[in-house]
Amino acid sequence: MAHTITLIPGDGIGPEVSAAVVRILAAARAPIEWEEHIAGMQALNRYGDPLPFAVLESIERNRVALKGPLTTPVGEGFASVNVRLRKELDLYANLRPVRSLPGILTRFGPVDLVVVRENTEDLYSGLEHIVVPGVVESLKIITERASTRIARFAFEYARRENRRKVTAVHKANIMKLSDGLFLDCFRRVARDYPEIEIEEKIVDNACLQLVMNPQQFDVLLLENLYGDIISDLAAGLVGGLGVVGGANLGDTIAVFEAVHGSAPDIAGKNLANPTAMLLSALMMLRHIGEADAADRISAALCRVLAERQIRTRDVGGTATTTEFTEAILAELEA
Ligand code: NAI
Prior knowledge:
Layout: E1 3-8, H1 14-27, E2 32-36, H2 41-47, H3 53-62, E3 64-67, H4 81-88, E4 93-99, E5 112-118, E6 128-132, E7 135-138, H5 144-160, E8 165-170, H6 178-190, E9 197-202, H7 203-212, E10 219-222, H8 224-237, E11 245-249, E12 254-258, H9 275-287, H10 291-307, H11 321-333
Parallel strand pairs: 1-2, 1-3, 3-12, 5-10, 8-9, 8-10
Antiparallel strand pairs: 4-5, 4-11, 6-7, 11-12
1,4-dihydronicotinamide adenine dinucleotide binds near residues 266 and 314.
């Protein structure tokens, strides 16, 4: 039976990478029926709302979505649709496996780590106001409830995926109460997982260590802001935003999305790397129990990158989005 999945192609390069992924999943005969919706700038222009109710309703009904990047205006305009989606659907965990791919040269050697980021609070609560002209207050909210459930998510993930260590990243030396609470929750949850090693690192040191010796890390657990920054740093270790997938997960709903933005500088030019969106789609296939299709696509992707040396420009190649996609299709059909 086919799985009905909400597809949001997204803004900028979103439609290009989404179209590539849809073709690849079809070639692998993944049994999926897409329910396509627009959000972001396109929806704003057409319906006057960047997150129409029909999008939320579709995701809530299907419980699984694949989403392209959505543009957020900087410093003005509507609030981030990504943040709204995470809040409305209570997608409290952002999961980003960061793994080196064959054939993609980087400065950092083989990397295999997973970033788990709390998705619903911290400085992203959107609570900021002007106290008096020239003074702005922005509130960092950390709760026991959210910190405990994201810690539990990280340890459950580590247990399920046979990971050996969870590192909590914090700045509790300065933010003693807020980051202190996050750490307390981490330590308390850790007691239920005695087989998993635990570690704590201050965020600035964690950044240094990530570029000096990324191999020491396994699962990283972070609040929202640190997680946002470190997860892009981690993507840079393995070749950039074009080659890392991710997911936003709640207890019942899962939205899989590439980690990159809408890349306006290359949108519409057939230059985008669809690998990030494809890796997110592979996570999605495994989530819905279609691991066979995921394994076949993953093997085809690795052959294209490593053996056939076909790569897009962002990772040192010359292939267009279409050429790269067609190389994967050819491998799948070989
Ligand atoms: P970006 O990720 O769109 O682009 C950063 C750089 O990476 C650009 O040089 C771009 O060309 C390159 N790049 C990104 N993805 C690529 C791919 N698949 N293949 C090849 N090159 C790629 O980040 P930026 O410029 O900061 O943000 C642009 C817009 O995207 C903003 O409106 C931002 O709010 C939005 N955004 C949306 C996200 C989401 O929907 N989850 C995440 C990050 C940003």
